[in-house]
């Protein structure tokens, strides 16, 4: 809700009331016709001026006479004459963004509680009532100026547009660091993610420049996910204002989950909850144990040359290797893959002999490579390795509990959860 004003000096207000009265008289005369006049003579109940809400209202922040309002200042609306009160205020800009505000208990004052956007055009609708309970309404438009000195905060959503697995987080990369908690709340409030079907989700600040968004559970299969920013023109911090951001649309495919049991030397691949293939594998040997936990497919490479030196193994040592690898599905940035390993065929399904990757036959690796896509889930259980970290080496986001994930939000950390979108539809079926 919000408001702003056009010039309303005493003279202008009087002229406006006269114009309204004249228009009302002309219209009413046309309806009544020759039978008499409705305006201009005393005593007739329709001869009085209509209640003009604008004459009782004053506006701050919105500079009058066509000048531009200062976006650094809150929008303020007050009732100038006693007896009347404001009942509702709605303010939106041309992008459809609403301005939140607070109305005093006595209805005499309203002020915005979020920053106005710079370089924006606003329309404000104010509903009032006078001391007799008669309703009034005023609609005002105004523009905000652009700060003289400012730094622009741009946002880039990721990943690229396309279809992904149900484990793919939405990312937001900022062009400048945001450290202050209040500024983070401004940014987070402006970054919107919606999905169909609707699910509960939240942003998590990975660092000062990076946010990830994920649902409480994995995304639904065959969902459409849209991310957009309302940050354009919004003041984030001193001399830092939001820039325009390209929106993002993603879709998800089938729910694909590959679960590797390192102790059983076996991977089971599920599609939409149904096991479709069990594959004998080998995982990391002692000293090179495969990481436990949930990982997300990052990409696929038909051929990779793998060298031990890339993970810190000295060339010429007993553990050194330099191998051509095919059908390599990457799950960490540090070089963990699911790939073809024909040299370990005798150990697949029986022993763990790799340097951390999940190895399998060439035929199985080709099938896996052709079946999964970026964003699909690859989980490892019963390994002696550490747990996949949430951030920094791929997408380990799902290894945080939902409670701990929410702690990384500047908006919902420490707040109780409301009903899920599914709960709201169940309670109000007409929303479905």
Give your account of this protein's structure.
Helix content is 13%, strand content 33%. It is mainly beta and 432 residues long. The chain is built from five helices and 27 strands. The radius of gyration is 31 Å and the shape is elongated. A hairpin with a 6-residue loop joins β24 (322-330) and β25. It has three domains: 10-143, Immunoglobulin-like; 151-253, Immunoglobulin-like; 256-400, L,D-transpeptidase catalytic domain-like (Beta Barrel), CATH 2.40.440.10.
Task: Tell me the CATH topology of the largest domain.
Answer: L,D-transpeptidase catalytic domain-like
What is the percentage of strand-forming residues?
25-35%
Using the coordinates above, name the CATH class of the largest domain.
Mainly Beta
State the fourth-level CATH superfamily of the largest domain: L,D-transpeptidase catalytic domain-like
Main β-sheet, in a few words?
A: 5 strands, mixed
Average predicted local confidence, pLDDT: 84
Number of strands: 27
Number of domains: 3
What is the CA–CA distance across the termini? Answer: 27 Å
**Helical region count?**
5
Ranges with pLDDT <50 over ≥5 residues? 1-42
Cα Rg: 31 Å
Could you give the order of strands across the largest sheet? Answer: 21-20-19-27-22
Helix content: 10-25%
SSE blueprint:
Blueprint: H1 10-32, E1 57-59, E2 76-79, E3 85-93, E4 101-103, E5 109-112, E6 121-129, E7 135-143, E8 151-153, E9 155-158, E10 162-164, E11 170-174, H2 181-190, E12 191-196, E13 201-205, E14 210-215, E15 224-229, E16 235-237, E17 240-242, E18 248-252, E19 256-261, E20 266-271, E21 274-280, E22 293-296, E23 299-307, E24 322-330, E25 337-340, E26 358-360, H3 362-371, E27 377-381, H4 402-407, H5 421-427
Parallel strand pairs: 8-17, 10-18, 19-27, 25-26
Antiparallel strand pairs: 1-2, 2-5, 3-6, 4-5, 6-7, 9-11, 11-14, 12-15, 13-14, 15-18, 16-17, 19-20, 20-21, 22-27, 23-24, 24-25
